[in-house]
Amino acid sequence: MNYHIEQQMNLSQKLEILADAAKYDVACTSSGVDRKNSGKGIGNCITPGICHSFSADGRCISLLKILFTNECIFDCRYCINRRSNDVPRASFTPQEVCDLTIEFYRRNYIEGLFLSSGILGSPDMTMDLLYQTLYKLRTEYHFQGYIHVKAIPGADPELIARTGYLADRMSVNLELPTAEGLNALAPQKKRPKLLAPIRQVRQMRMQNKNELALYRHAPKFVPAGQSTQMIIGATGESDWQIMKVAEHMYKKYEMKRVFYSAFLRVNDDSLLPVLPGGPPLLREHRLYQADWLLRYYGFGTDELLSEEKPDFNLLLDPKCDWALRHLEQFPIEVMRADYHTLLRVPGIGYRAASRIVKARRLGTLDYANLKKMGVVLKRAIFFITCGGKQMYPVKLEEDYILRNILDGKERLRPGAGEQPVYEQLSLFDDPRFSV
Amino acid sequence: MSSCHCLMIRVFQCEDTLTGILTGVYDAWDSRLGHEHVRLETGAYEDMELFCEYVQVPPDLDKAGKVLRTIRTRLGEEAYEMIAYASACPHTRKADAIYRMIVLGLRLPDGREISRMLTQPDVQLVFELRRKAWHIAHRYMGFVRFQELGNGVLFSKIDAEVDVLALIAPHFADRLPLENWMIYDRRRQKAAVHPAQKGWVILEEVEEKVLSEFENSEKETYYDGLWKVFHRAVGIASRSNERLQMSFLPKKFRHFMNEFADSRES
């Protein structure tokens, strides 16, 4: 820890180092709180959140995402800031973070602050620095914008509690989906230790809900809820295991979001896998799709995957995949099916479903209406009837639908994965066959 | 005479603002020609039609206010928001669709249902325009970039396809109540101006030349530079994906965003 860089660093250099070090954190959402300005300070929050820019990798920049320090005492193998790496180190002061946040916020560059940190000295010391920064921002500068802060595992619960009253969202990263993975790659982090602050925040949020019911103006504790993130593809977990963990986090800990981050090999370490195809972005994409099915569509992990079929089909989105395996439940009559049944149709999202439910009370729908309401017909037509009629005569057969859906080309977000390439079959295509 | 009258359509040409359109709604209704004999248009069109009589409608706050009250009480806040947002979107048929939507809504036993009648083409159009306007306004809430002028005023320019000023000004007034700020819409030569701790107003016919006389404050270059450093540092090179960036943040929004200023010049 004594290898400091000689010369005094200026703010620009620090920002470069500490923003660069924070970029692997996925969460950059500013959603979930609605707060008007009190008229005496700076800032407000709106429920959907606001994206202020997009970085070169296409991710939204909503918050000033920085580490407080990257002078970390831990040596996690996947992390760029591990102790044994020779990277430039820097630390902010609370004042510097406040200046940056306020001045960026005034110019409408950002929606708030995302403050994470390496472990400087001890977890308590680090958490205290984060607390001081937030306290200064909230009380001295009367900053009322969004703040997302990391709860440092192992820090004094009292410090975490106090910080929680100043922040909008708190998060602890699970890092790896299973305890075994964590033991292998981050031996200094223990699963129970990671879960302790998550449990504490959940408990305090429940208490806070009761307080708020009694006293409307009671201080709010972590109003935008908790989130966490897992690295995908660094260890050998299956999608089923990952989704099970995510489901558990949503149910047991009332998480607002679980983020998935495709593994990037930033350190050359013998325990880390080499991924010749680059980071598993398509797999990450499928996990996010399934995550939405859990949160908004009423699906359970065990419906989508099982121990026998532990991974998602990379060619199909999880909902289509599910529907093809449950053709006995289709076709669905759009004019009559209830909201939850509509949600299960590929091509009908939750917005379209609620529009359908509202609109059909006031008039008969046809396929043109459905299209206008945002139903993706090229996927939905195989599974629905509207007014008792199919749009085209289509067969309710797995092979037929699969062929047509794959022909129709799913609109993946750019870069999420390439479409399958078709090629001429030959006798010698068998992978077991070698010349 | 009467048969001729049946054929004629009176076209009310209103100003392309919420006030203008609602005044048009008032006049069209007040003309008592029957709904099928009137039509609303925004702006003057070059290709006029036969059997049409064109009437200019000067915007009138009283008339618009009356219509507005009726919309809010009889059709509900949801419909009001739809109409207010839709009127900011450029579209040739929007004024007429708004008129038809109001007529239809007032016929319903419960006018509030109108905002959900998406099977009606007019309601559908207003709904779509509202969605479009909201999307663009929401994006500008994020993409507006203020510069600090020498006198401490925060100044921003936009060039929006939708008339977003009145849609985003309340947001910024709430967010920065202690700041003097101004957002200038270059395309419409309008500006939303907010003096500290006061309400915001819209100024019309503001020339761009007048605004270019002010110099930035000393700190401006410093924080501008810091933001560019941050923006560059936060991208992950091995996940680089310009197409995704472009789809979320198309070039039309980038013109006044400082983090993209360098790439434009090169």
In short:
The complex is a heterodimer of chains A (435) and B (266). By secondary structure, chain A is of the alpha/beta class. Helices cover 37% and strands 9% of the residues of chain A.
What does this molecule look like?
- The complex is a heterodimer of chains A (435) and B (266).
- With 435 residues, chain A is α/β, with parallel strands linked by helices.
- Chain A folds into two domains: 11-225, no CATH class; 318-408, no CATH class.
- Chain A contains 15 helices and ten strands.
- The N and C termini of chain A lie far apart (56 Å).
- The mean pLDDT of chain A is 88.
- Chain B is an alpha/beta fold.
- Chain B folds into two domains: 2-136, no CATH class; 144-265, no CATH class.
- In chain B, helix 2 (18-30) packs across helix 3, helix 3 crosses helix 5 (121-143) and helix 4 packs across helix 5.
- Chain B is elongated.
- Chain B starts with a helix and ends with a helix.
- At the A-B interface, helix 1, strand 1, strand 2, helix 2 and helix 12 of A face helix 5, strand 4, helix 6, helix 8 and helix 9 of B.
